[in-house]
Amino acid sequence: MRPTDHTLKGALDALAAGETTSVALTEAFLDAIGRLNPRLNAFITVTGEKALEAAKASDARRAAGKAGLLEGAPLAIKDLFCTAGVQTTAGSRILGGFIPPYESTVTANLLRDGAVFLGKVNLDEFAMGSSNTTSASGPVENPWSRANDPDTRLVPGGSSGGSAAAVAARLALGATATDTGGSIRQPAAFCGIAGIKPTYGRCSRFGIVAFASSLDQAGPVARTVEDCAILLKSMAGFDPKDATSADLPVPDFAAACGRSVKGLRIGVPKEYRLDGMAPEIEALWQQGLQWLRDQGAETVEISLPHTKYALPTYYIVAPAEASSNLARYDGVRFGLRETAQGSDLRDLYERTRAKGFGQEVRRRIMIGTYVLSAGYYDAYYLKAQKVRALIRRDFEQAWGKVDAIVTPATPSAAFGIEERQDDPITMYLNDVFTVTANLAGLPGLAVPAGLDPQGLPLGLQVIGKPFDEETCFAVGAAIERAAGFTALPRLRA
Ligand code: GLN
Q1: The pTM is what?
Q2: Active-site residue, selected from the candidate residues 22, 104, 130, 159
Q3: Which of 197, 204, 259, 353 is the most buried (most CB within 10 A)?
């Protein structure tokens, strides 16, 4: 077995058994990145020397009997997490050259547990997108391709496209990601890997470049559900530096992956059966429910009546918060500064922001400032907040009847890098199954469950009660076991 073929769990076991070293693993992944990244563009920054030093230190800790939970495991970090001394761009020109003096809490937790960082991975600019085509560092290519059309380059999904592509192509054992409306689950589904957006408040947002603060959550993507569980255990936990961080113990998520689903009631929301839904998506969903029934779960039809308002609500709330969060990029404090002879402060702001932000980010800032402006605030923003409360209430009522909810993760498989670029609304439809969990603050896990007629991966989503990621892991692992998903992308180490 080649070192890059390991799952995270497999690699940690091999390290513990002395069958490999962190240096050997890190070298293998750096070599794979060197070969494949010029094509995939998953990494924006590769920190090879730093990674090898960290791997050496990790091997020494292990030899001294001081191995942490993730001791020696090479990971990729979404370039939205601030990493001390390492450029953090958020996929934007406006942060070009920004080197944070501090570490995000999530990445600090991973380092505390012995992880080795290979570098920073690509994303849609400020995590706005579903295709990883809005990055100032260029698009990421999905390592998968259509069986009958191998030359069309496909998107890896977004915004965590670099994270998902890197893991799927075996350029890292796992990766950090973030999800504001689907950015962990949709790219995981497009790349045939697992990913979980935990409950809002489970992971600290400190040191993560903010997009929409009431929706943003960090989480892992990895090859298997269990690997996600291992990573989330390390990433999660109370942080006094984030006022919305939950002061709750972090359960043993990996143990939950082995729990039986017998007797669990699985909700099937009828509003997620969209008009004109692709037959393979419907078939996958029915298959997933059957797998769960075969393992002793009961499936129950439920109603989440406000689902149809979720996407429009999200596209008011998220841009509103983004317009406020992105006001800080003024050419004075971070990264890019565009100025001209005799220019005043206002001119500095305008030049910097015009040059630094890409088209999608500008669109969001304009929508956001519009819906927050006097005269429109009540009609749009306040209304959206009220609908958000109704969406949350739909779920609260459902939890009286079911323990988890299973839906498709995305309405389609990965599409071409050139496709769906002309109409932002078509792009926004990617999130139709995922945004509800962000609006309600609930955990959502994506698990690869099958292939479409073109041989591309498709995923299912498990939504759980607040802070009940354990049930998501149990149900997700049950689907994973039944699916026996072993297909591999064409481009991989
Ligand atoms: N695709 C959604 C958007 O563009 C969600 C992005 C995300 O979850 N960060 O806003």
Answers
A1: 0.98
A2: 159
A3: 197
